[in-house]
Amino acid sequence: MAMALPLAYASSVVHPFEAGRLSFSTKATKHKKQIYQFRKVTKVLAYYGLTNPPYKLDALEPYMSRRTLELHWGNIHRGYVDSLNKQLPNSPFYGCTMEELIKTTFNNGNPLPEYNNAAEVWNHDFFWESMQPNGGRLPWGGVLDQIEKDFGSFSNFRDEFVHSAMKLFGSGWVWLVLKTNERRLSIVRTSNALCPLVWGDIPIISLDMWEHAYYLDYKDDVSKYVNNFMDHLISWHSATARMVRAEAFVNLGEPKIPVA
Amino acid sequence: MALRGLFTKGAPTVASGLGPFASAGGSGTRWQGLCHARGLKVAALPDLEYDYGALEPAISGEIMRLHHQKHHKAYVSNYNDALEKLDAAMAKGDVPAVVRLQSAIKFNGGGSNSVVVRFFLPSEFVVPVTIVGHINHTIFWKNLKPVNEGGGEPPHATLGWAIDTDFGSLEALVQKMNAEGAALQGSGWVWLALDKERKKLLVETTANQDPLVTKGANLVPLLGIDVWEHAYYLQYKNVKPDYLKNIWNVMNWKYASEVYDSEIA
């Protein structure tokens, strides 16, 4: 599960004896100053770092070009991380984990200023990990069983996912989520930076439908982008790992244990 | 409605209020003659008054071509398809479908503004979104002009004075619009609007293809800047502020002045 962990540390060096010093100095004070200069108190602030996608930037060619990833990850995703880090020192939410930060700053629909940046950082981390080189094709095992149970068949699910992506208007994301209350998989469309975490649902796969995600490679041919994602990019490995984790939180029913 | 006067192609229909934007000029022959449900006319993709490459280097020819021929055209086509469905539903007497479709296309005559307000209903149906997408882009093409035809020339006379009164200076207005455009999250538009009632100029932003009237029933668009990513991404990548800075070089203030003068009068 992707989380932007505090990776980078910035230290601001504060000399405790600088503040409010009187301007006169005797030999004794000067000597003290020299000693104390070696004992600097460091205030450590932790920031979010930009995590790398789990593959090289050209690994998703030809379905998502290196140039797209360079811009999407290197500029846009990085931009959100930097903006969030700028907001955090003055924010009451400094020190939260990413998921806590998102849920708290969402503020039940009245988002606080940090929400947009935090959610977009998380969303993009999740998105990179929802894809893999040589992805696509079919899921297997428990994930496939659950999809067949909740959608009827894999092709139903695929059609519904593609249809949902095509219907999305404006900027947003399409998600395969595990709904915690209904205890089933579902496809959800969200606008702009909205993330299903805020409703307590567990995302399994996401697709970025903001134009910057596909415009360089596909121009306005959204259908080709979505279909390529389904056929060649989607990472069922990640989906499986996420489902396994999700089942620790959501009871999907008794496993089918064969009777001897 | 001031905009009506500027769309001389085709006669405006009486009851639709969509008259200027539904003028059947240029392409759109497939749907002509179809759909006279309450005087609805099909929409047609308006031709640009300049070449695709004429706005370079502010906006690249590639973007203009895609924006006009793909994105804008898609709105027009989808709108016409929706009208076709409405026509078919009415012909078949499929009452639930008709009710569903018509609740999204309420025509009671009146000005374009009031029609557009009624359009904007929270509904799955594609008609409201496509028609305002069509309208917004039609305005947008009029807002742009190549440099050698007067694009970028600052406004004079009435509009110029109004800008100085309401914003302090043209630079202040440009700065404000650029700031609002850059801050806009997701897709949308940033507008220089005239409040007809209070005779004041405002800067407003709208999300997605929301019409300007959703921000105020008396607002008339003078200038609109499309900040959907498709409007700039190919050229400016994610550096939206550069796009906003450069687009002023091809801004058609003459059009804005004309609209302003006719609304104020």
TrEMBL record, chain A:
Organism placement in taxonomy: Eukaryota, Viridiplantae, Streptophyta, Embryophyta, Tracheophyta
Domain of life: Eukaryota
Enzyme Commission identifier(s): 1.15.1.1
Major localization class: plastid
Keyword Oxidoreductase belongs to the record: yes
Protein name per UniProt: Superoxide dismutase
Family: Belongs to the iron/manganese superoxide dismutase family.
Cofactor(s) needed for function: Fe cation
Reactions listed under catalytic activity: 2 superoxide + 2 H(+) = H2O2 + O2
Family matches, as Gene3D superfamilies: Fe,Mn superoxide dismutase (SOD) domain, Iron/manganese superoxide dismutase, C-terminal domain
UniProt cross-references to PANTHER family, sorted A to Z: SUPEROXIDE DISMUTASE (PTHR42769), SUPEROXIDE DISMUTASE [FE] 3, CHLOROPLASTIC (PTHR42769:SF10)
Domain Manganese/iron superoxide dismutase C-terminal as annotated: residue spans: 142-241
Positions with a binding annotation for Mn(2+): 72, 124, 208, 212
Segments forming domain Manganese/iron superoxide dismutase N-terminal: 48-131
InterPro entries: Mn/Fe_SOD (IPR001189), Mn/Fe_SOD_BS (IPR019833), Mn/Fe_SOD_C (IPR019832), Mn/Fe_SOD_N (IPR019831), Mn/Fe_SOD_N_sf (IPR036324), SOD_C_sf (IPR036314)
Protein keywords: Chloroplast, Iron, Metal-binding, Oxidoreductase, Plastid, Transit peptide
GO molecular function: metal ion binding; superoxide dismutase activity
Localization: Plastid, Chloroplast
Function noted in UniProt: Destroys radicals which are normally produced within the cells and which are toxic to biological systems.
UniProtKB/TrEMBL annotation, chain B:
Protein residues bound to Mn(2+): 67, 137, 226, 230
Gene3D superfamilies according to UniProt: Fe,Mn superoxide dismutase (SOD) domain (1.10.287.990), Iron/manganese superoxide dismutase, C-terminal domain (3.55.40.20)
Family: Belongs to the iron/manganese superoxide dismutase family.
A GO CC term attached to the entry: mitochondrial matrix
Domain Manganese/iron superoxide dismutase C-terminal: 157-258
Alphabetized UniProt keyword annotations: Manganese, Metal-binding, Mitochondrion, Oxidoreductase
InterPro entries: Fe/Mn_Superoxide_Dismutase (IPR050265), Mn/Fe_SOD (IPR001189), Mn/Fe_SOD_BS (IPR019833), Mn/Fe_SOD_C (IPR019832), Mn/Fe_SOD_N (IPR019831), Mn/Fe_SOD_N_sf (IPR036324), SOD_C_sf (IPR036314)
Protein name per its UniProtKB record: superoxide dismutase
Organism field: Musa balbisiana
GO molecular function: manganese ion binding; superoxide dismutase activity
Subunit description: Homotetramer.
EC number(s) on file: 1.15.1.1
